[in-house]
Amino acid sequence: MSEGLRFTLKRNRRRILVALLIVVVLLFVLIFIRHAKNAAPAGDKAASTARPALTVSIVQTSHANWDDKLAVSGALTAWQEAVVSAEVSGLRIAGVMVDVGTEVKRGQPLALLSQDTVLAELRKQEAAVAQSKASLAEAAANADRARKIRDSGALSEQQINQYLIAEETAKAGLASAMAQLDSENIRLRQTSINAIDDGVISSRTATLGAVVSAGTELFRLVRQGRVEWRAEVSAQQLSLVRPGQKATVFLPDGSSVIGAVRITSPTLDVNSRNALVYVDVPSRNGVRAGMYARGEILVGKRAATTLPQVCVVQRDGRSYVFELGPDKHVIQHTVTTGRRVGDVIEIVNGLPAGVSVVATGAAFLNDGDLVRVVDAATAAASVPTATGAAATISTDPATTLPGAPVPVATPEISAQSGAH
Q: How far apart are alpha carbons 94 and 210 in whole angstroms?
């Protein structure tokens, strides 16, 4: 083959390769342009089909003047306890008439000591009194005769004085015997151990047959059956408490009683730095000394910013509420809660004034979620039911009605119900 023909073929092959390369590049450019045109409407469509995460209802914060209460705790104790002891020694307990829990009246016999020895001593002393009376009668007769014959000189002055002194001695002996007889009568009365006040027996150590000594405690009683609640308060709380303020005591059995502050402690405990508030509580079944109970002392009224409790979401030990933003996206706020009345709770701080707060459905939201606002009844019907600690909201496209929101994914939404 000639050199000219070979050169021509080589040049034509080069032109064909260049043309093919240009065609391939053009095809890639056309495909890219078409893909870009198709992607833009898809993006616009996705943006235009964005749907709210949840349907919710909103409420406004309210202001109320609530009772200001101090939540405290303390022991229920006897108002005063009386100790009933033996006043005589060496006597045996012959009878016990009451037991723990018995209601007694002032002067009612509680126990009886053996009276045999006391009665014997009493009869002995009665005989001594009779003897002293006879001696006095004899001395008085002698003294009268001495007085009558004093001027006659029949008796010396010394003898007359002896008769007169003997009379006075006999009078003193009779008085001493009478005093001793009174002592024995008192000792006889002391063999009956009586209640020193109205009340309820709280302790009994008297045992039948035991020999007692003077001062031995036999019974202890709650005077007049009165029980008081001794609430422990801090120094700051103590400054708010005044006598006469009402207090509610919650008993261990679930019931409650209403009492009134009687007095506050003038000093604080050096160890706990707490003071005691003495609250009189009515006597009734279920109120027993020795119980430990919590309660509330009403110290006045204070303004409160309130929300329904359903608005407050508890997560990770903190309380949150969701403010509705102007673009229908929620804003999460960490709040501090306070007092609670029914299903309404106080917001102490953390929430701006005059904002709209999500009520129904708040437990299923996160910061920045887009929501749709409806009335409370409609929102309650659309809120999903949570099972356990988390709930999943999902929609099956095959069962979705035309025009209904279709989420592009199945989000896991924390469903922690309740409030602080």
A: 8
